[in-house]
Design a protein that fits this description.
Helix content is 9%, strand content 36%. By secondary structure, it is mostly beta strands. The termini are far apart.
């Protein structure tokens, strides 16, 4: 899963299904957990990625838990409306098999607070920062299956209270 690379225009999307957050809930914490599949001991300044939510989380790939896509193979997510909330993630290092957490609480709160929220999944678009030169890779859903270690797949962890 390419989260950041020296290639301009690099992007990825993730969709987590069956999260069951009722519309209008108060999101207390929401994290995406990535397990690094590459090693970058000193991430250059300005490198990293930006995460935004996608309001339309309808599927683009058949999968059980986490779906991901890399354009141009199936870029139908490119035209989907994104959240105003975003997260810039710039790690100082990226160590293979270490797990990194990205706090997406504000993004998820914006999604579940939207009048069109249908509780069918949460989707995120991940793009390089404009000046990123680091090659930050994480295990993908498929990578976890191939390694027979599903704990390496991207994970979505959320706590919330319903109104």
């Amino acid at each position: 899963l390419y989260l950041s690379s020296p290639y301009k225009g690099q992007s990825t999307a993730l969709r987590f299904r069956n999260i069951n957050i009722p519309k209008g809930s108060k999101v207390q914490s929401a994290l995406i957990l990535f397990t690094a599949s590459s090693h970058v001991p000193d991430v250059p300044e300005g490198s990293g990625f930006i995460v935004k939510g996608l309001f339309d989380s309808s599927p683009w790939l058949p999968n059980e838990v986490c779906e991901q896509i890399h354009p141009p193979a199936g870029n139908n997510y490119v035209s989907r409306v994104r959240t105003e909330a975003s997260v810039v993630y710039q790690p100082e290092s990226w160590n293979i098999t270490r797990q990194y957490s990205v706090d997406v609480t504000a993004i998820v709160q914006e999604i579940v607070g939207n009048s069109d929220w249908t509780d069918n999944g949460v989707a995120f678009a991940i793009n390089n920062l404009q000046n990123s030169t680091a090659d930050l890779k994480a295990y993908s859903n498929e990578g976890g299956v191939l390694l027979e270690d599903l704990s390496k797949q991207p994970q979505f962890v959320v706590t919330f209270s319903s109104n």
